[in-house]
Design goal:
single chain; 410 residues; mainly alpha; Growth Hormone, Chain: A; globular; disordered N terminus
Length: 410
């Protein structure tokens, strides 16, 4: 750890001990980072079953319902708060629904790029929405943000219901050749599971625990940076609002591009048989967890070079997207029949980390600015390193015995 003199030198003079701005006391980690935490595990099982039956449409109908909620004219003072908190909760079912679909549509050698391109859409959508919302607010007023985005969501849902089908066998427009190609490659996975789940076997599964712990650790770092970096750049590095806004948007673009690149490269390695499935998942998890941890540890030693600090933090949020070809899609590798339900479990742990991390940063920084940020970076890096080691030791790339169709439910 750096000594006192070194630790102070990495902060600009205005934020060193004795010259703290009142702004630094206002940092309290936002709790909205974990907005979709409502009874995740039990709910995701039910929603995932609906997704299997209706081609993931239950998850997307939540988007439909969400956008319609904001149209009421007569509302009490408490209703707006309820409406603002309900979209994240409703949309929490979308990702398990997507994973159920991917398990039936994505061939093993195309799975990484297909799923990562879809995930990149979330990141690019966030970037685009933040950009357009500001323009809409300035020109039309803030209510039109809800009207326009809600309308677009409803139109998208109509297209989803009309064009998306549960599996290739039920799709009316897919060619017979493509249908046979997909079905033959996924035949070994078995059919969708029934209402019973091998919960005891899941609880004893080290590969599943490896994914869960790694997701918790990497989401801790991700949400910590995502929610705290704008405050850090504004209060500590003293960028003006315009410059801060531009720099805050860069990780979204980098993260989206990183997802696509990771997916393409992972499938390339698998198709050329350079590495096996487990090795590819662990390689990209290592890149997405170890490098950001190194960047965070390096930040307190940089000194007053604000540009280098911003570059390191931006790279950390960009390179963490490499886990998209690692732990994020490993559920389908080890248990394709239960992929949606397993994502609900691991996503619960990740969202919990997203609640705790920014709150912990707020507590650390409120006590001491200099050591607070340093300790926040070090804790995140240490957690990431622990999660990576556990995943490399116990992660797997093969279907588990309890996830096979011919295995008795425990």
């Amino acid at each position: 750890m750096p000594n006192a003199g070194t630790a102070q030198s990495w902060l600009p003079p205005a934020t060193r001990p004795g010259r703290r701005s009142q702004e630094t006391h206002d940092h309290a980690g936002p709790l909205w980072a974990g907005g979709d935490t409502s009874p995740h595990m039990a709910r995701h099982y039910l929603e995932e079953k609906q997704a299997a039956a209706f081609a993931g449409r239950r998850g997307c109908s939540a988007t439909w319902t969400t956008h319609r909620q904001g149209t009421g004219r007569k509302q009490s003072r408490t209703k707006p708060l309820c409406l603002l908190s309900s979209p994240p909760s409703a949309q929490g079912v979308i990702f398990p629904a997507q994973y159920t679909l991917w398990a039936k549509w994505a061939p093993p050698l195309e799975r990484s790029r297909l799923m990562n391109i879809a995930d990149a859409g979330c990141t690019f959508g966030t970037f685009f929405a933040l950009l357009v919302a500001g323009i809409i607010c300035q020109t039309l007023g803030w209510p039109f943000v809800s009207y326009i985005f809600g309308g677009v969501g409803c139109v998208w849902c109509l297209c989803w219901f009309l064009l998306v089908y549960e599996d290739p066998a039920h799709h009316p427009w897919i060619s017979a050749r493509e249908q046979e190609y997909i079905v033959s490659l996924l035949a070994h996975q078995g059919r969708s599971h029934g209402h019973a789940l091998p919960l005891v076997a899941m609880a004893k599964s080290l590969p599943l625990w490896a994914i869960t712990i790694a997701c918790f650790c990497t989401d801790w770092l991700f949400y910590m940076l995502l929610t705290s970096m704008p405050t850090f750049m504004s209060n500590v590095l003293h960028f003006d609002l315009r410059e801060n806004g531009l720099l805050s948007s860069l990780p979204y673009v980098g993260n989206g591009l990183g997802h696509i690149l990771a997916g393409l490269l992972a499938d390339f390695l698998l198709a050329r048989q350079v590495l096996g499935t487990a090795a590819v998942r662990k390689l990209f998890s290592a890149l997405g967890m170890l490098l950001p941890a190194i960047f965070l540890v390096a930040v307190p030693y940089i000194g007053c070079n604000s540009t280098v600090v911003v570059v390191l933090l931006t790279l950390a949020l960009t390179i963490i997207s490499m886990t998209g070809a690692g732990i994020n899609i490993n559920h389908i590798d080890i248990a394709p029949r239960y992929a949606g339900f397993l994502l609900g479990i691991t996503n619960t742990f990740g969202i919990v980390a997203g609640i705790i991390a920014p709150t912990a940063v707020g507590l650390l920084v409120s006590q001491d600015l200099q050591t607070g940020w340093r300790n926040a970076f070090f804790v995140s890096a240490a957690l990431n390193l622990f999660g990576l080691i556990f995943y490399i030791a116990f992660g797997s790339g093969t279907i588990q015995d309890w996830a096979r169709e011919d295995t008795a439910v425990q």
